[in-house]
Amino acid sequence: MGDDQELADFGRRWARAELKGDTEALAALLTSDFSAVGPRGFVLDKEKWLERYTSGALVHDSFDWENVEIRRYGDAAVALGVQSQQSIYEGRDVDGHFRISQFLTAADGQWRLAGLHLSAIAVRPPA
């Protein structure tokens, strides 16, 4: 499927949808069996991931996806990068920097995010 530019574009679309809390765009970018491991070890399926936005519990003031390295494996890929956010979750400040591993698959001729894992970074890495 395509070149690495497609995957870089996918990452930008994902970050934009996360920033805006755009559940329609996110639903289209995630596989039906998507799962995410949060920075404290909790696991969210696609429905719960999107529910954070539909409920209004999660709001981002900023959301960046940078320092991304992409590794392709046929119709699968891994993207490693840094997510930086200024956010509120259920009224609490959840600003932070996270190392993220994204697991992508080519489904129906398009890249989709099948899973991700977040790990908190104590100190923001240099750009």
Automatic annotation (TrEMBL):
Protein name, UniProt field: Nuclear transport factor 2 family protein
Q: Which residues form the DUF4440 domain?
A: 11-113
Q: What domain of life does the UniProt record list for this protein's source?
A: Bacteria
Write down the Pfam families for this protein, in alphabetical order. Answer: DUF4440
List the transmembrane segments: none
Its organism's taxonomic lineage begins at: Bacteria, Bacillati, Actinomycetota, Actinomycetes, Kitasatosporales
